[in-house]
Write a structure and sequence with these properties.
Number of strands: 3
Strand order of the largest sheet: 1-3-2
Helix content: 40-55%
Structural class: mainly alpha
Distance between the termini: 24 Å
Number of helices: 6
Radius of gyration: 14 Å
CATH architecture: 2-Layer Sandwich
Number of domains: 1
Order of helices and strands: HHEHEEHHH
Largest sheet: 3 strands, mixed
Length: about 130
């Protein structure tokens, strides 16, 4: 497997891919998607592992889905993409990396829109 690019390079690639993906969404989905922050991290933190997030997780939606009732959830709504994990999953292939960024982003966005794992699988976002 080729050497992993620096995080800054992965970040540039991933941010551009997410922007392109959001721009291609239908109008009624684009506005809520644009209001949901995306955070980019190398890998899940030790604290996340304590919350049963596996070290090879590609992405994560944190917060409340749009169709959830408001609560006192302490974490703001956001999507986290784990770029080094995505790169490793793509086995160092930039095209596969970009595709996985898109699929993972859409998967996590689906959770924000209230889809469960079965709904996402039906849409080939698993």
């Amino acid at each position: 497997m080729p050497e992993r690019p620096a995080f800054a390079q992965l970040l540039d690639l991933a941010q551009a891919e997410v922007r392109t993906t959001v721009a291609a969404l239908p109008d009624k989905l684009r506005d809520p998607a644009q209001s949901l922050p995306v955070t980019y991290e190398p890998r899940p933190t030790a604290e996340m592992a304590e919350d049963e997030i596996t070290t090879d997780t590609l992405g994560l939606f944190c917060g409340e889905a749009l169709n959830d009732l408001p609560s006192n959830h302490p974490v703001p709504n956001q999507i986290i993409l784990f770029l080094e994990n995505l790169w490793d999953f793509a086995e160092g292939d930039e095209e596969i990396f970009l595709n996985e960024v898109q699929v993972t982003y859409l998967h996590e966005l689906g959770h924000y829109f209230g889809f469960d794992e079965e709904d996402l699988a039906e849409r080939k976002l698993d």
